[in-house]
Design goal:
- The protein is an alpha/beta fold.
- It is built from ten helices and ten strands.
- It has a ten-stranded mixed β-sheet, sandwiched between helices.
- Helix 6 packs across helix 8.
- The two termini are 24 Å apart.
Length: 303
């Protein structure tokens, strides 16, 4: 876990991120590769510069190298200390292709604007990248890092428990590397609870009895998952009743979480159905870093 790390970094991104991710890779005892993707110039644009005796792509590469060297210098690093690769094409496509080629087990990318939900490139990674995706915001390497593992909020019932275990395993490892404070939040709702509460077919006592049954079943499932994954003794546990799309962002804000570890996919093994409605709503409500975990059997549409 976190042994082959790929950082999607472009010259417009924060230079400090290079140093931060390299430090994380060292703590995780993993290998880091930095990939940068540049937009391919059109033939007509290339022809225009060529007619003036200039090689546009060479100019772009020179500018990239200057920016990269400057960013490395700001972090007290030299080029030989970081493995880098430059590609031409669409950013999210080339980065995902490299994940597949390198068999990376973590992709890290920054958001374009701090304190806001992931941008379009980050969302492409969340929807289509086959390995866990870390959307980075803020400065996780300063002070005590607060990590929230959100379980029980997936759309996919069949693979819930397996995915929840993967979420806890990644969160526990992240907490170990960053020496963080781990919170585990289990969010639950009864199946069609709102309909049962408002339907004349169910009396108030019947509805209350059903919701109590759903609560007990959910807590028993949560207990079983916790017992299957070794967690730090200091991990804080919380069980909350309500809509995950509302409850998880609210908990993250109130407890000032630095990173939320969560599931991102609605169904496994089906290219095209790439992210669940619940996950979309959770992500849109977060203003911190996100580590999104895919279920086993996820198939990326990028080839």
């Amino acid at each position: 876990m976190f042994k082959k790390i790929l950082l999607d970094w472009n010259p417009g991104h924060d230079a400090k991120l290079l140093g931060h991710v390299l430090e994380f890779a060292r703590k995780a005892e993993g290998d880091l590769t930095v990939v940068t993707t540049l937009e391919q110039p059109t033939k007509s644009i290339l022809g225009y510069f060529s007619s003036r005796g200039e090689d546009l792509k060479e100019m772009i590469v020179d500018d990239y190298n200057q920016n990269l060297d400057s960013a490395l210098e700001q972090n007290g690093l030299e080029r030989h200390e970081v493995r880098t690769e430059l590609r031409w094409g669409k950013e999210f496509i080339e980065a995902i292709k490299m994940v597949q080629e390198e068999k990376s087990d973590l992709l890290i990318c920054p958001t374009q604007k701090e304190g806001e939900p992931p941008d379009s490139t980050a969302m492409h990674f969340l929807r289509k990248c086959p390995c866990p995706v870390w959307i980075h915001q803020g400065h996780l390497w300063r002070g005590a890092v607060r990590i929230l593992a959100a379980v029980g909020g997936s759309d996919a019932a069949d693979s819930d428990e397996t995915l929840d275990r993967r979420i806890l395993q990644h969160a526990a490892r992240l907490s170990e590397i960053l020496r963080g404070r781990l919170h585990v939040l289990h969010c639950w709702q009864g199946y069609l609870e709102s309909i049962a509460s408002s339907s004349p077919r169910f009396s108030t006592p019947e509805t209350s009895k059903y919701i109590e049954y759903a609560r007990e079943e959910s807590e028993e499932r949560f207990k079983s998952i916790l017992e299957s994954v070794p967690l730090p003794e200091t991990a804080r546990q919380a069980v909350v009743h309500g809509d995950p799309g509302t409850v998880i962002p609210k908990y993250a804000r109130e407890h000032r979480m630095d990173i939320v570890v969560m599931g991102s996919v609605a169904r496994s093994g089906i290219p095209g159905l790439l992210i669940g409605n619940t996950a979309e709503r959770i992500i849109s409500g977060l203003n911190c870093s996100i580590l999104a975990i895919k279920p086993e059997g996820f198939v990326s549409p990028v080839r």
